Amino acid sequence: MDQLEALYETIPKAVGFVERKIDIPSHTVNLYGPPLSGKTWAVLDYANAIPKKRRLYIDFSDLRLDKSALADSLQGFIQARNIETLILDSYDGSIPIPHCRQAVVVTQAPFTENPFMPLLELTPLDFEEYLAFEKRLAPPEHSFSLYLKTGSLPLMTGVHESLLTRRLHELVRSIFPERVDQALLRHMARHLGKPVTPHQLYSALKRSHKISKDRLYAALKAYEARRMIAWVEKFGQPRAAKRLLFYDFAMPASLFFEKSLMGQLYTIAAWRFIRSGREVFYHDALDLYDPAEDLGIILSPFANPESSAAKIAGRIEAIEALGIKRLTVLTISNTFRFHFDKISVQAVPFYEWMIEDALQ
Questions:
Q1: Which of 90, 101, 111, 222 is a Cys-bridge partner for 61, taking CB atoms 3.0 to 4.6 Å apart?
Q2: CATH 3.40.50 correct for 3-121
Q3: What is the DSSP letter of 83?
């Protein structure tokens, strides 16, 4: 059977699909996001709502695909079959995008070849989405503890705790097949949520692996384009070392016997700002600073009113110089409020803060 006929007749089912916080529009769009964030399941669910004879789904990672033959015949097939919606999953640019009423182009990095194509980002699971995937009747603090262990990738939800490390390591080998990239991930994991420069990563990695500075810088640039890493700049000091974020917080934590709770919590909090479109920084006195809202964030997992007041007192001059009006202390489970001079201080458990409608 011709490959296009086979693809036209059969499309995978999005079995057990759980709704995400995006809506694929009825016009052409580039759906992008980091590896294993759930893009394929989202487009399959969308495709299955379209009449069978009006859709065509092509997965460019399918090893059966003859891409040279596809380039020659795809446009004619679309016209002959009157196909209205074409989904190009894992699109790699190996063939031109044909003309169709609607094309859904699925990539990891935004597709920049067509600057007029609308973009739609699918991020990994936030805590609210994780709760929908988990489907367990558990207290929120227990669910958040599981979230820290399983991470933000949809396929990790429901994995038994005894298999978590093995499964996470399988993902590392799949996403980073080269040993030097696995080693780079380990070095990045050591600095999760901490200030670090690309040069510092290069200096550490070259001691054990043969790698050029150009190779490392290109890898970091590619990871950033695919939304696998991000950087939090120091407020007022753009040349200072930036805090490093990885798109999933469980994968880097699985690479060491000792866990970095603060690195994981910082990653979760910072990504929430970034993915909401808010500009956020760090400061010597604050873990996160939102100047547009005069809001400061301090991560203190086991804080109480006394320890928080003491911590703020030691930083009060710098905090007041920023014009901060509100301080949020993110804890594991404690809740309290008080005022320090003219600053309103609120302590909120992470699991509550993550599902609030607005950042506070």
A1: 90
A2: yes
A3: -
Cross-strand partners of 31: 106, 120
Domains of the chain, by residue range, sit at 3-121, 124-272, 278-360
Nearest 10 degrees: Cα torsion 32, 35, 39, 40: 130
CB 60 within 8 A of CB 33: no
The domain 124-272: what is its CATH number? 1.10.10.10
Distance CA 2, CA 149 (A): 45
- Strand order from edge to edge, sheet including 195-196: 195-196, 242-246, 229-232
In angstroms, what is the C-alpha Rg of the chain?
23
Query: pLDDT tier at 229 (50, 70, 90 boundaries)?
Result: very high
What are the tokens at 42? 């989202």
Give the whole-angstrom CA distance, residue 209 versus residue 203: 10
Report yes or no: 120 and 31 within 8 Å, Cβ to Cβ: yes
163-167, 203-207, 256-260: least confident range: 256-260
